Amino acid sequence: MTQPAFTWPARVYWEDTDAGGVVFYANYLKFFERARTEWLRAAGGEQQRLRLEAGLIFVVSETVVRYLAPARLDDELTITVEPVELGRATLTVHQRALRGDQVLAESSIRVGCVNAHDFKPARIPASLLAALQRP
């Protein structure tokens, strides 16, 4: 897809860092999760409403992360979300954590839509898919 990346600001807090004062590697996944949540919300896919009204939730099924440079306490980051593939029940996004123009970490994350009751695959609502495809 060729639409512009969704961006979400984040700051590195003490709780995000390890004993060396750098962001603990697993915490990049938290930054990525929060940015995806805000991306969905901006497209009208507020996850609590989706669960309550349609009985649907999103689950991560695959993630690959490359760590390129450390983020440190108090850094201001920009987290991006770029859809790569939008299917009927899954979506794949490319995400980056940046400090200014420097890419600190990047990830490919595949997310599936499932029924909240039995976790069986379910279709992403057509209206949400259409909204995610808009620039």
Could you explain the architecture of this structure?
This protein is α+β, with helices and mostly antiparallel strands. It contains 3 helices and 5 strands, in the order E-H-H-E-E-E-E-H. The chain has a 5-stranded antiparallel beta sheet with strand order 1-3-4-5-2. The longest helix has 16 residues, at 27-42.
Question: Can you summarize this structure?
Answer:
It is built from three helices and five strands; from the N terminus they run βααββββα.
Topology, number of strands: 5
Number of helices: 3
Distance between the termini: 10 Å
Mean pLDDT over the residues:
94
Order of helices and strands: EHHEEEEH
What's the main sheet like? Answer: 5 strands, antiparallel
Identify the quaternary structure here.
single chain
Please state the overall shape, judged from the principal axes of the Cα atoms.
elongated
Query: Unreliable stretches, pLDDT < 50, 5 or more residues?
Result: none
Strand content: 35-45%
Summarize the amount of helix as a percent range.
10-25%
- In order across it, which strands form the biggest sheet? 1-3-4-5-2
Rg, nearest Å: 15 Å
Task: Return the structural class.
Answer: alpha+beta
Name a few traits of the molecule.
135 residues; alpha+beta; 3 helices
Break the fold down into its secondary structure elements and pairings.
Elements: E1 6-11, H1 27-42, H2 47-54, E2 56-67, E3 76-86, E4 90-99, E5 102-115, H3 126-133
